[in-house]
Amino acid sequence: MRRLFLPLILLISPIFPGAAQEVEQERVALIADRVSVDQATGNLIAEGDVTILRGETVLTTDRLIYDRAAGQVRVPGQLILQSDEVGGVVYADFAELDEDLQNGVAEGARAIIDNQLQVAATSLQQIDGRLTVLNRTTASSCVICEENPTPIWQIRAERVVRDAEQLRFYYENAVFELFGVPVLYLPYFSHFDPSVRRATGFLNPELRSSGEFGSGVRIPYFYVIDDSRDATLTPFVTTDAGVLLEGEYRQRFMRGSIDLGGTLKLQSDEVGDDRGFLFARGDYDFGDDIIGRIDGIAVSDDAFLDSFGYSSADRLTSTLSLERFQTGRFWRVSSIYFDSLRDNEPQETVPFILPEAEFRRTYALGEMRADLTATALSFTRDDGRDVSRTSLGAGFDRTIVTDPGLVLRGFADFGGDLYYTADDPAVGSDTDARVDSTVGFELRYPFVSRNAGLTQVIEPIIQIVRGDQSGDPEDVANEDSLLVELDETNLFSTNRFPGSDRFETGTYANLGLRYESITPRGRNITGTIGRVVREEALDTFPGSTTLGQEESDYVLAAGFDATRNTRISGSLLADDDFVASRTELRFAYGGERLGFSGTYVFLREDEITPEDRAELVFDASYQIDGNWQADVGFRRDIENSDFIRVDAAVSWGNECATFEFSASRRFTRRDNVEPSTDFGLTLRLAGIGESALGTRRREQICGT
């Protein structure tokens, strides 16, 4: 059958005269299999596969009658209307519309808004292209089918109005149902269109229960200030601890951002008044590659964060910095404040750092690389030693690869420090200066074997290093080099002290062997073994490590990619009899439905660790089916056979709703925070303040 296309001129004159004034603004067309004019009435009749296009509005049906005298379009049968004013697609059994398709009524209407919210109504009325009024309405984002005739949730309302300008739904006499059972009646409520990604209104509430505060509910209210600013205010109402008020303010700039927030407990308790915390996070690009950053937190007392589940940290760090990164150079100036929440660490003894400044510059001198560094550090205590340090340094490094594949590297570093110490209980106030140097060379000779499906590399490594420093190390207080470790990451380092207050001196050799095998299927193996050998013992290192002995413990590390989804790795620090002083084992698996990871750590008793310690941390997630997921995790003290924490959660979700129940138990006791068990319950509904939920892993109930 011949298809007819009536272009713009046919619709404007004489068929749709009201559209003539808008011809230049909107695309208007009629497409149909057959078009005729009733000679008696003058009505235009379009039949077959009929489509009207007007701007962004598209109407399709089998038969359409245009009443020229009344300026009305009548659709006597089923139709589909796609319109931005409606917010999606409308299906109806009958409709009468004006010639602009902006006003009209429809019966047996069903609408799909933003491919999420489904609304069915006995009748629909379109007013001025802005308001869509639906009468005797049922709304849900759940798929309804023969296998699942009752949706998980739905809203029945006497009337629903959608405002196309405000992108908001308004309900009158609404009844909220779960699994077909009425659970809540509201004479009036509203929510934003599912297409709105950011709008003022209430967010999903969260139910919680804890041994610390009893039962509680969090009800967040999100307020949009403008395109770059918003705020969230959350009352947290508890049965045993009163009411807490949480707040957060966010602002984005062209060159940065700022987040401010905190929590205030409105009632006093046995701990004190005005309990809570404040935080600030932000960054700003001042131009010319200069960036300022802030990350700070302040808390009223040591127990607040842990008591209400905000954080289990026992030491808080706040920083304020200004930095600049450029090719070959870098500088940073910062201030650091530590807030100790530990029972055995008085705040008066914790240092405050101002400033911490660092400058680094790299030069290419032919085939040699040169580095210049300058640092300054000053920290003070209310009770105890104050220290200021200024350091300058220079380093040179060159690597040569010979034709046989032998890699030769030479390096040299020189530096100087100036210290000022005040209020030291042992020496009082004093000024000290020292210089240090490190020179050495490194040899690597990788042996490579290649055959079908396997590449193997064995690389022996030898470093010979000489370090010297003027003066007595004990003349300078040791603030930043108390905890020293030996592992595969610093086996070939020339100074294994973590800070600048101590320096590795003497003549020593870093010896090691590395192995790697690579296969096309990804089943790779890596391994490292090595130790440090000294000309003579060095007493600068603490007794908790064998680095100061003439022969250190052996460092052993290995990794195995069993499959593309499975990784096993571990490290060991052992003496000549292979008695381990530290063991670490890590494993991880990430499959399509099951994923888990874990870490086991063993530390033998030493000066820092008063007794043997062994812990296991484990986390797992299992996708039971397309809708159910389970998560579990724990941290266990193996040595004492006690749990430190246990977490578990189960969630269910599909295209229209997600439900999550979580439980956690903290077994440790700190300050006046007792062991407690927490429970959480969250329900999210797609189409009402939420976008489509979990579409990547959640299946529809109907299996489509």
Automatic annotation (TrEMBL):
Main subcellular location: membrane
GO cellular component term, pick one: transporter complex
InterPro entries: LipoPS_assembly_LptD, LptD, LptD_C
Protein task: Involved in the assembly of lipopolysaccharide (LPS) at the surface of the outer membrane.
Protein name: LPS-assembly protein LptD
Domain spans labelled LptD C-terminal: 274-628
Xref: Pfam families: LptD
Similarity field: Belongs to the LptD family.
Keywords linked to the UniProt accession: Cell outer membrane, Membrane, Signal
PANTHER family reported for this sequence: LPS-ASSEMBLY PROTEIN, LPS-ASSEMBLY PROTEIN LPTD
GO biological process, alphabetically ordered: Gram-negative-bacterium-type cell outer membrane assembly; lipopolysaccharide transport
Signal peptide, first to last residue: 1-19
Source taxon at top rank: Bacteria
Quaternary assembly: Component of the lipopolysaccharide transport and assembly complex.
Gene3D superfamilies named in the record: Lipopolysaccharide (LPS) transport protein A like domain
Cellular localization per UniProt: Cell outer membrane
